[in-house]
Amino acid sequence: MPATLPLGDPVPEDGRLPEPVGRRVREAAASGRPRTFSLYVHVPFCTVRCGYCDFNTYTSADLGPGAGRADYVDTAIAELDHAVDVLAASEVPARELHTVFVGGGTPTLLPASDLARVVHAARDRFGMAPGAEISVEANPDTVDAAYLDELARAGVTRVSVGMQSAVPHVLATLERTHTPENIPRAVAAAKQAGLEVSLDLIYGTPGESMQDWRRSLEAVIGLEPDHVSAYSLIVEEGTKFGSQVARGQIPDVDPDDQADKYLLADELLGAAGYRWYEVSNWARDPDGTGARRARHNMVYWLDQDWWGVGPGAHSHLAGVRFWNAKHPAAYAQRLAQGTTPAVGRETPDAEARLLERVMLAVRLDTGLDMSVFDEASPAQRRHARESVAGLIAEGLVEGAEALRGRIVPTLQGRLRNDQIVRELLGF
C-alpha cells in the first residue's frame, strides 16, 4: 500500500456509497457468480523504516489519541462498525468474509491479543465464509511459539513471514532487523501452531550476487513453506534507497540481473514442487486444487470486493474505489468525530477498467480471457486480436491457449509482462 494517496472525488461525511454498488452486488449474486467480500486491516507501525519501503508506515509508538500502538485496535474496530453502517445504508447485501489479511507495517508489533480482537470483531460483524483464509504478516523477530499459538486460537490460518533474504549482508543493505537464524525458528513455531506458512523474498538488492540469491532460495526450499513470494526490488522515488541511487551512493537495480534471478527462482522452486500461479508467487500444489495459493491476493487480481481498514487503506466495492486519510492521527480523529475516514474515491471508466483487467490477468496462470475486449471499441478489439499472432511468434504467450482465446504468459512472457500488456492494448 503506497504512502502517496491519489486524488479523487469527495466522499460524503457518512461514507455512503453510490447506488450502483448495491445493485451490482445483487445482480452478481443473482447471476450465480457472486462477488466475494474480503477485509484488509493495515497496521502502520514498524520498529525501523527500511530504505526501500514506500508503504504508509511509522516508527513512533505514539501518534496521538486512537492512533498509537496501545489503542490502535480500538480505532480499527470502530472502522469495522462504520463499515457495517455504510454497507447497510448503501443497500449492499450482507456477505460473509471470504478472506482477511492483516498487513503493514509490522502487525506483529502489536500484542497477539490485539490481533485476535480484530479477527473476533470481524467475525462478529460480518461472519466468516466456510474455510475462510485469515492471514497475518509477521516479522520473524516479533513472534514466538506462544504468540503464534494465540493467533491460531483466534482463527488465523496463515502467517506470511518477511524473510527477504538468508544472507546477512543483503539483510543489512535492506535494513531488515532480523537475522537469518530467526527465520527457521519462526517457521517451525508457525507450523507447530497449525498455521500455513508463506515466505516473502526480495531479489536484486545492490550487492546481492547470484550465489547469494541461490543461497536464499535453497534456504527457503529447505524450510518447506506452503507458499513463496519473490519480488524484484523496486527503487521508489521518495524512499531512502531512491535518494541514495540519485546521489550515486548505491547502484540502481539491474533489470538483466533481476531477470536472471527470476529464472533461477522459477527453476529451483519448480524443481522443489512449487507451482507458479502469479508472476511473483509460487505455491505447493500436490493435488492440483490450488489450495495453498494466497487467496486474499487473488481477491485483488480477480477484481473482487474488499474493505480496507486503517490509515491510507484502500477499498474496492463493485467498481468503486475509496481510500482513507493517510496519517494515523487524522484517520483516528475522523472516526472519533463520527465522520468516515475515507477522504477520496473514484469510479474508473471503461477504458481504465479494461487496462487494469488486462494488466492483472496476464500475470496469472489462468491468463486473460480475450472476451474482455468484446465491449471495447471495434478498433481496439481488432488490434487486440491481431496482436496475438505476434505474441505467439515472440514466445511470450502459450500458443495453444491463445488459439482458444486465452492469453497465458510463457516463462519469457512473465519476464516481459509489460510488453504483453502494451501490445494487446496498442500503446
Structure report:
By secondary structure, this protein is of the alpha/beta class. The protein folds into two domains: 19-305, tm_1862 like domain (pyruvate-formate lyase- activating enzyme), CATH 3.80.30.20; 349-427. It has helices at residues 19-30, 72-89, 112-126, 145-154, 168-174, 182-192, 210-223, 240-246, 255-271, 295-301, 328-336, 350-361, 378-393, 399-403, 411-415, 417-425; strands at 37-43, 97-104, 128-138, 158-164, 196-203, 227-232, 274-278, 281-284, 305-309, 314-317, 320-324, 342-346, 368-369, 406-407. It has a nine-stranded mixed sheet with strand order 7-8-6-5-4-3-2-1-9, with helices on both faces. Helix 2 runs parallel beside helix 3, helix 3 runs parallel beside helix 4 and helix 4 runs parallel beside helix 6 (182-192). The longest helix has 18 residues, at 72-89. The protein is globular, with a radius of gyration of 22 Å. The two termini are 27 Å apart. 41% of the residues are buried. The mean pLDDT is 94.
Give the ordered list of helices and strands. HEHEHEHEHHEHEHHEEHEEEHEHEHHEHH
| Widest sheet: strand ordering | 7-8-6-5-4-3-2-1-9
Structural class assignment: alpha/beta
Total number of helices: 16
The separation of the N and C termini measures 27 Å
Major sheet details: 9 strands, mixed
The CATH architecture classification of the largest domain is Alpha-Beta Horseshoe
Determine and state the CATH class of the largest domain: Alpha Beta
Low-confidence stretches: none
What is the fold named in CATH at topology level of the largest domain? Answer: pyruvate-formate lyase- activating enzyme
Q: What characteristic shape results from the CA principal axes?
A: globular
Domain Radical SAM core: 31-275
InterPro entries: Aldolase_TIM (IPR013785), Coproporphyrinogen-III_oxidase (IPR034505), Elp3/MiaA/NifB-like_rSAM (IPR006638), HemW-like (IPR004559), rSAM (IPR007197), rSAM_sf (IPR058240)
Family: Belongs to the anaerobic coproporphyrinogen-III oxidase family. HemW subfamily.
Organism: Micrococcus cohnii
